[in-house]
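The freezer alarm interrupted the setup, so I double-checked each line after restarting. Inputs confirmed:
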Amino acid sequence: MKMKRPLAHGKDKAPPSALDPAQWVQLHGDALFGFAILRVRDREVAEDLVQECLMGAYEARHRFTGEAAERTWLTGILKHKIIDHLRKQSRRQSTETLSDQALGEAHFDGRGHWVGRSSTWNGDPKALIENSEFQATLAGCIAALPDKLATTFILREIDGVESEEVCTILGITSTNMWARIHRARLSLRRCLETKWFRESE
Amino acid sequence: MTAAAVTYAAGDGRTGMFEFFKLLNARCEDHARLISLSMDHSLTRSQRLAIKIHVLYCKACRRFKHDAHMMRETIKMGCGQCNEFPKAKETSLSPEAADAIAASLKARMSDDQ
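Predicted 3D structure, all chains:
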């Protein structure tokens, strides 16, 4: 796994200064829940994962180095719980075929030409992402993606998991993954176009 | 390029000049797929060349290429809000779940005391 594992290092550092397990649910519960539900798309599962995360974090509390903020540390643990969950889920599901490619809205007509006109995207990515309204719009568009597309896209593009790792976690072929990411891109682009770039012109 | 990528990109697995000429006539839909693929996987030389030529005259694909890269770059800058479920939808633990989790944590903590 290529992701940083916050649990794995720094046992020899000074004892944690700022962990306050009694306050975790109140301070971080909703944020962790939001992080989880965006990725697993099921309220009950997300709530279970938050519980697993906090219980696990409590057991591992002596490994908290204070290098990261409490929230960041907990989120790192949650990330691993989510990936474990997705992995188990993919084992339960039968292997998918390309057929889930057929779902989703049309971006091309029968002759393979683009449908609809696109507005021009301009602006600097840095300036865009610093705009909290844009972030909210982007987050909304990601949340609106169909479940499978969202999970795949988030793992790859937001969590930065390597391609092969994404395939293993989700139990899909690379062909399937490329198709999902491509469709996610097409959908996100259309969503941002309607909700952001067109309006801001 | 891996076999899987060749099949995904070209359909019939042929590469080289044949692929190049075929791609020159390919539809925007196929070019868009290749553009996306190129962001995750290396393309063959003829695929890269075919895209280059296609986007010279196809504004829609040129825009897609630009937008897809811009989207990736923007997201890479770190979208904090993308890690929260948008406010309008389910965004918080249900009170029952919050209580249950707090209770199990508390129980676990009192074991230690």
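Quick read of the result. Chain B has a mean pLDDT of 83.
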